[in-house]
Amino acid sequence: MTPQDELIARIEEEARLTARWTGRTTLAAPVLQALRKVRREAFVPPADESRAYVNAPLPIGFGQTISQPFIVALMTDLLDLKRSDRVLEVGTGSGYQAAVLAELADSVASIEVIPELAQRAEAVLRAQGYGRIALRTGDGACGWPERAPFDAIIVTAAARRIPPALVEQLAAGGRMVVPVGEPDVEQELRLITRAAADGGIREIGILAVAFVPLT
Q1: Counted domains in the chain
Q2: pTM: predicted TM-score of the whole model, two decimal places
Q3: pLDDT tens digit string along 98-129?
Q4: 175 occurs within a structural domain
Q5: Which residue in 198, 156, 149, 146 sits closest to 174, CA to CA?
Q6: Is 110 a catalytic residue?
Q7: For residues 25 and 11, is the Cβ–Cβ distance under 8 A?
């Protein structure tokens, strides 16, 4: 069994263990295939390459982390992506989540506030064949108005409250996944949906999580 296969097995097991909260006993096959395909070792620091397929977050510098693969898989699965969807990621970080998204949707844009991480992620993404991802350095809480609306938005850091600009940039029928809560305390992963019929917003809690704060 390859390290990728072992990781997918752990993700599937954790999906079963958390199903009582997430409502998802299994994750979509295309999502798992995307995680199997993306070379996670390319997105972690060289010193951690041997741990790339451990189901755990890893530090990437500047107080940031590459998220636990199960959380990457769950958040991606909650978006229910179609190939034609326009996707916004807030918090490029290492670029790993953006690469996973690019395996599932043709239009992916990502914003990173830390210039050094943004530059590193751009170089790695291009080297790994993900040059079509649109990247920007700036405040992700403001979204990317010029490219809005988005069918899916994923926030990879914990917001004290859901940024209003991101809700405004969510298309009718769109979905947003965002961790919400204060730093160093229990946070909650939330799913925000905008109704296709009347544009109404619905918000539900999914799972307790721990993320670095959105800056």
Answers
A1: 1
A2: 0.96
A3: 999 999 999 999 999 999 999 999 999 999 99
A4: yes
A5: 149
A6: no
A7: no
